[in-house]
Write a structure and sequence with these properties.
single chain, about 425 residues, mainly beta, Methylamine Dehydrogenase, Chain H, 2 domains, five-stranded antiparallel beta sheet, four-stranded antiparallel beta sheet, 27 strands, about 35% strand
Length: about 425
């Protein structure tokens, strides 16, 4: 049952205390009641509007919030002196008021250029957003995005609360404010997709299924038109060594296209499969990473055959050598999610519940630095989740789940082993929810 004490009482009492004590009136109090009894009533009385029940009468009779009663019915402390109910006299300040004109009286809008906010500020977004509105799908929620290099297309895994879909989006059309979706594969409930997306050198797109299918689906995308097609002959059906729940999350493919790794939600092992023609789809390893709730799985672009898996609830990232199936554990902050590689030595780990990005020395296998999402507010529930590194422009981007924004950092690259990259907080790019 949801039981919430509405904040109006506390806020109103604060205002009353300020107004009462600020008066210069020395006449007798309007209501010489006991302030403590009144405060006890405030604390013991709350609205039932947000309770999950049928016994609340507030849909026909408004709630009597004590702090919203008439001034004469609210007692004041003796320390305030006499109080007549009058507000303090106005004091002339140094500002003068004039009638608004020009842009100052423009109507608030949500779609013009620029957008005018209710407080009068103007906002001109740096990019464009598009809301997918398919009448045949319910409860969708774009979860992850995969860029197809050399094209104008990205693949979007739409994994909501009901129906799911895999979409191909034309970013040039998106930038122009046009409908960007060029093709789609629907997965009506109970069929499902999940977070993981990966691209093979041969152009195959792999997408993690939901729990029911226990499969990594395979697709082709026409690089010219963006047409999306399912290639079930290349699906990877997941299987654990013992009867278990094959529920894939993050997936990735080696740069040479020989192996696929899949993190799992409900098992302690990450699974490795062959993509070579002679042994395609065969499992070559089930590597214990020490915990369930695995999140991202990425192969090291600088070290072929080495993968990293973030283990969400175990506060660790696990390094996997595919050939030997040996592992090394790197302890991190709370709830590590996505990973990003800066160079042959250093990578970043988004620590969602620590509000930081851990900088990992992959040679030493340790965290050597921690980057706060906002240096002015080191811990403020920003929840960094996804990471992207633009090496050409030396920029690091981090999505902030609870702030509806993308944090932007300037990056001074590492000068070599033992010298991690340095980061400067440049600001935030606002986003939708």
């Amino acid at each position: 049952m949801l039981r919430t004490v509405l904040p109006c009482c506390a806020l109103s009492i604060l205002g009353l205390a300020v107004a009462g004590c600020g008066s210069d009136d020395t006449s007798a109090p309007v209501n010489p009641g006991d302030p403590q009894e009144f405060m006890d009533e405030v604390r013991s009385t709350d609205s039932c509007a947000l309770r999950c029940g049928q016994d609340c009468a507030e849909h026909t009779q408004p709630w009597d919030c004590p702090a919203m009663r008439s001034w004469s019915a609210i007692p004041h402390a003796k320390e305030c002196g006499g109080y007549s109910g009058k507000s303090p006299a106005s004091q002339q300040g140094q500002c003068t008021a004039t009638e608004p004109s020009g842009d100052a009286i423009a109507m608030t809008n949500s779609s013009a250029d620029p957008v005018v906010l209710p407080d009068g500020r103007r906002v001109r977004p740096a990019g464009n957003a598009w809301v997918f509105n398919d009448a045949n799908l319910e409860g969708t929620f774009p979860f992850s995005v995969l860029w197809l290099p050399g094209t104008r297309f990205v693949v979007v895994s739409d994994d909501g609360y009901q129906d799911h879909a895999l979409r191909v989006v034309d970013v040039e059309r998106l930038a122009a404010g046009q409908d960007p979706m060029v093709s789609m594969q629907r997965y009506p409930y109970p069929e499902s997709l999940n977070y993981g997306l990966a691209l093979s050198p041969d152009g195959t797109v792999y997408a993690a299924s939901g729990r029911q299918e226990s499969t990594v689906f395979a697709f082709t995308v026409d690089p010219t038109t963006g047409a999306l097609a399912r290639d079930a002959t290349k699906d990877i059906v997941l299987a654990n060594d013992a009867p278990g729940d094959g529920f894939p999350f993050g997936v990735d493919v080696t740069q040479d296209g020989k192996y696929l790794v899949a993190a799992q939600v409900n098992e302690r092992s990450s699974l490795v499969y062959s993509l070579e023609q002679a042994t395609y789809g065969q499992k070559v390893g089930a590597v214990d990473v020490g915990g369930k709730d695995q999140y991202a799985a990425l192969f090291d672009p600088f070290e072929p055959g080495v993968a990293y898996v973030s283990v969400w609830n175990s506060q660790r990232v696990v390094e996997i050598d595919v050939a030997s199936q040996q592992t090394r554990t790197i302890d991190t902050g709370r709830q590590p999610q996505e990973l990003v590689f800066f160079d042959a030595n250093y990578m970043g780990v988004a620590e969602a519940m620590s509000d930081t990005i851990a900088i990992v020395d992959r040679v030493a296998g340790t965290v050597v630095a921690s980057v706060p999402m906002d240096p002015n507010e080191p811990v403020n529930a920003q929840s960094p989740t996804a990471l992207a590194y633009d090496a050409d422009n030396q920029r690091l981007y981090a999505t902030l789940a609870t702030q509806n924004a993308v944090a932007v950092f300037g990056v001074t690259p590492s000068a070599g082993p033992g010298q991690p990259p340095a980061f400067s907080h440049l600001g935030l790019i606002p986003t939708l929810w």
